[in-house]
Design a protein that fits this description.
The structure holds two protein chains of two kinds. Chain A starts with a strand and ends with a helix. Chain A has 19 helices and 13 strands. About 30% of the residues of chain A have low confidence. Chain B folds into two domains: about 90 residues, RNA polymerase sigma factor, region 2, helix turn helix motif (Rna Polymerase Sigma Factor, Chain: A, Orthogonal Bundle); about 70 residues, Arc Repressor Mutant, subunit A (Orthogonal Bundle), CATH 1.10.10. Chain B contains eight helices and one strand; from the N terminus they run ααααααααβ. The chains are: A alpha+beta, B mainly alpha.
């Protein structure tokens, strides 16, 4: 069966059994996509339920039907005309109703959030004004809105009350749909929510809160109509950036509380407050006031944004932030148990200070975060982001590094050779006492090197200047080998060498950009 | 989580039931849809397909007489993906040049013998990939079935892209070696 094949081509043409196997055993989407699809499904199901189960529909006939429907329609019109004629005869002095030629308006069940009684005239009047201005862009909708609100008041008298404010929201959200529907249908649907339905929902949320020893504040407020259902939720990135900038519990909590405007959950003790990053609370920020800790809980994973019962340290905060932002590469299993253990000294953490991967940088924000973390600049990433260097440009390989180490007689020479194959280092840290640049190494072929370990994940060429105060330099070059947990060993160490001052400054300061 | 547990939950507590259904099957549906729509549709279309299938299952699956949930959802996914693919093809067909030879429409571009052989090879490769174990097996599937780059794979697998890249390169080498012994050259 000797055959030259392309792996992707062969897998793409696999039979259904193989595809089923892949489908059943492997992840197909990332968490974000998965969450997005879930939310879309839920909203689709809710819409379906609203249309199917909770709507009261007044007249719903599509404009285009077959001959049968035309005849039936004609008959119905005749009957209606006859009815109107008889009605006219019997109510000669009554005011004539205006003919109803309005286009459809859909009031969805989900948009109706609060109950207002028919005595709340001010509320209704205000709502009408708002509706008119909101719908001014779509003239076909504006009159319907007024009619709809009127209809709502009438409904209240009949036992079914619906909120005028909610109606406004409904019209706002449904205006485009209504406009679209104009072209497709002549139906008009008006949905109202029974008062007891709102009460029922509220009671259910309160009961759920009681069971959790707290209150689902946001949900309750939405049901009561105190805040709109789409009250914004900031992203974790915004929180991370704030945390990196401030380092203060008070500042971060203040930012979080103002950015969210209302917590999703508050426990009865007043200590725990939750701000959800998604609608179902599977990803959330938890603030513990008594411990002054801020934690992000994403499913079963926890990231300390600030503080913990045991540890208060800037590096911990920043590590948590950078980890959240996908910049730190240390694995959860390794990082968090060590942070939670008092006996694990901060110096150990310090040794992993630069244990992140600069190739993960995808935006200016990531660069800023790295700078905030330890003053590091990322020349290569900066050049790539600014479009001056292609992302695929050559990267120092392990083979090249080996040749340079064996052929060069000084670090100065080594740096010159390295800069010929990859000019911009991945990282430059200039902090006055110890300047470092490093290059992420392409590890292709690492298996053939002596000292190979199957756990090797990444390799970096570090060039460190330990003496920055004088004119002479004491430079070390070494390839650091890392496994999943972090540092594993050193390869090709070259110590105590001098380096050309100008070359070094050019590279570290990025002057040749 | 068994199908019957999910079905029972869908009936008793629809919200929770749907969560369970989604968690259990959205990857499954996505993969099936992706396999059919890969060449014709955008990733947004594939997502749409998943959303349609998952929500349709929730709304229409008959808990008592619906048969196996997995089979139901798999069939629904295939049919829906084929529908989408046809709809897209129809749109594309309208923009075809009049110079295109209509006779080609009647010529099958499938080589049955070759397809059978490819399916056999795919099965063997799949077995060998699975034998490599996670995370290498998953990285290879992500790269060569889902056509993802290392950053995207890292996102899905919650790994570091560099790790993904180096593991992938090593895994391919290992796979090549294994397959060479079976007379298959990558």
């Amino acid at each position: 069966m000797k055959k030259n094949i392309e792996l992707n081509e062969i897998l793409h043409n696999a039979d259904s059994r193989t595809v089923d196997k892949i489908a059943a055993n492997y992840r197909a989407v990332d968490e974000k996509t998965s969450r997005r699809m879930y939310e879309r499904c839920v909203s689709r199901i809710k819409n379906y339920s609203a249309e199917d189960g909770f709507s009261e529909t007044f007249s719903a006939e599509p404009a285009r039907k077959g001959n049968f429907f035309r005849i039936a329609g004609l008959t119905a019109v005749c009957a209606a005309a006859m009815g109107i004629f008889i009605y006219g005869l019997t109510n000669m002095k009554a005011p004539q109703p205006k003919p109803d030629t309005e286009q459809p308006v859909f009031f969805t069940e989900t948009a109706v959030t609060t109950t207002v009684t028919s005595t709340d005239i001010t509320g209704i009047t205000t709502s009408k004004t708002e509706v008119s201005s909101a719908a001014a862009k779509t003239t076909s909708v504006s009159r319907n809105v007024t009619d709809s609100v009127s209809g709502t008041v009438t409904g209240t008298a009949g036992g079914n009350s619906a909120d005028a404010t909610s109606a406004v929201q409904s019209v706002r959200t449904s205006a485009p749909s209504a406009t679209q529907a104009k072209a497709e249908s002549t139906a008009a649907q008006v949905t109202s929510q029974p008062e007891n339905e709102t009460d029922k929902r509220l009671a259910e949320v309160i009961a759920r809160g009681k069971a959790a020893s707290g209150t689902f504040v946001r949900e309750e407020k939405i049901i009561r109509g105190e805040i709109p259902a789409d009250t914004p939720r900031p992203s974790v990135l915004e929180i991370a950036v704030t945390a990196i900038k401030s380092f203060s519990y008070d500042e971060i909590t203040e930012f979080i509380s103002s950015a969210f405007s209302v917590p999703d959950f508050a426990d009865n003790s007043g200590n725990i407050t939750e701000y959800w990053l998604n609608s179902d609370g599977t990803d959330k920020i938890v603030i513990n006031e008594s411990e002054e800790s801020i934690t992000r809980m994403n499913g079963s994973r926890e990231y300390i944004i600030m503080g913990s019962p045991n540890i208060r340290d800037e590096s911990v905060i920043l590590k948590g932030m950078l980890y959240n932002m996908g910049i730190i590469t240390l694995k959860k299993g390794y990082l968090w148990p060590s942070l939670r253990n008092d006996s694990y000294g901060y110096s150990d953490l310090g040794s992993y200070k630069f244990g992140y991967d600069t190739r993960m940088i995808t935006s200016e924000e990531d660069l800023e975060a790295l700078k905030a973390f330890n003053g590091a600049t990322c020349p290569r990433a900066e050049m790539v982001l600014s479009g001056k260097l292609p992302e695929s440009s050559h990267r120092l390989t392990l083979y090249e590094a080996e040749i340079f180490f064996s052929n060069c007689t000084s670090v100065n020479e080594l740096v010159e050779e390295v800069s010929k194959v990859q000019y911009y280092p991945d990282l430059a840290i200039i902090n006055g006492t110890e300047n470092t640049i490093f290059y992420e190494i392409d590890t292709d072929g690492v298996e053939s090197f002596p000292g190979y370990d199957k756990d090797i994940e990444t390799m970096q060429l570090w060039i460190t200047d330990n003496n920055t105060h004088g004119t002479s330099h004491d430079v070390t070059a070494v390839i650091k080998v890392n496994n999943q947990a972090g540092y594993l060993s050193d390869w090709f160490r070259y110590e105590h060498s001098d380096i050309d001052h100008q070359l070094w400054s050019d590279i570290t300061n990025g002057l040749i950009k | 989580m068994t199908d019957s547990e999910i079905a029972a939950k869908m009936a008793s507590d629809p919200e929770q039931g749907f969560r369970m259904l989604f968690d259990e099957y959205h990857n499954y549906v996505y993969t099936i849809a992706y396999n059919i729509l890969r060449n014709t549709a955008s990733s947004r279309d594939i997502e749409d397909c998943v959303v349609d299938v998952m929500s349709d299952t929730m709304m229409n699956y008959d808990h008592d007489n619906g048969g196996s949930l997995k089979a139901y959802i798999g069939t629904l996914a295939k049919h829906r993906a084929i529908d989408i693919s046809r709809a897209i093809s129809r749109k594309t067909a309208r923009t075809l040049s009049v110079d295109d030879s209509p006779i080609n429409e009647f010529v099958s571009d499938e080589n049955v013998a070759s397809n059978v052989e490819n399916a056999d090879i795919a099965r063997i490769i799949m077995e060998k990939i699975e034998e490599m174990g996670p995370p290498d097996s998953e990285i290879l599937i992500q790269k060569y079935f889902f056509d993802r780059n290392s950053t995207a794979i890292a996102r899905v697998m919650k790994m570091n892209p560099v790790t993904v890249r180096s593991r992938c390169s090593r895994a391919v080498k290992r796979l090549k070696k294994i397959l060479t012994e079976l007379d298959i050259t990558l």
